[in-house]
Design a protein that fits this description.
Ribosomal Protein L22, Chain A; 30% strand; three-stranded antiparallel sheet
Length: 128
């Protein structure tokens, strides 16, 4: 198995807290599923800050950034029953990875964490 890309991002939580006051920010950055789950979460700032960092780290891992019609809403982060976060891999993401890295099978590994002031995400893209 070969590592194809690594991405990391850190976010100042106060910046996200200010941005959350703007409903357009939420709709522009987060998927319908993330917003639905976010409504049930007590600490919305932490929830959204970690996901913002994860989306940025994802783009760094794949090495494309947000361009050519690829945007924040194309990346969705959910949690399994035990709370482990993971990316939902869409056809669009699948196509980008296969074109960028010329691989047919891959895995993403995601770790997110936060403290009072900061949220961080770390992403590894690996060839199966």
């Amino acid at each position: 198995m070969k590592i194809l890309g690594i991405g990391v991002d850190i976010v100042d939580n106060s910046r996200i807290k200010k941005s959350l006051k703007n409903n357009l920010f939420i709709k522009r950055i987060f998927t319908t599923k993330e917003i639905y789950i976010g409504k049930k979460i007590k600490d919305k700032n932490s929830y959204y800050a970690k996901r913002f960092a994860a989306k940025e780290a994802f783009c760094k891992a794949i090495g494309t950034g947000f361009r050519d019609g690829f945007n924040f809403r194309d990346i969705s982060i959910v949690n399994n029953k035990l709370g482990k976060p993971f990316f939902l891999i869409t056809d669009k993401i699948n196509k980008i990875i296969k074109n960028q890295f010329k691989v047919s099978s891959f895995n993403f590994f995601l770790s997110i964490s936060d403290e009072k002031k900061y949220s961080i995400a770390y992403v590894i893209l690996q060839k199966k």
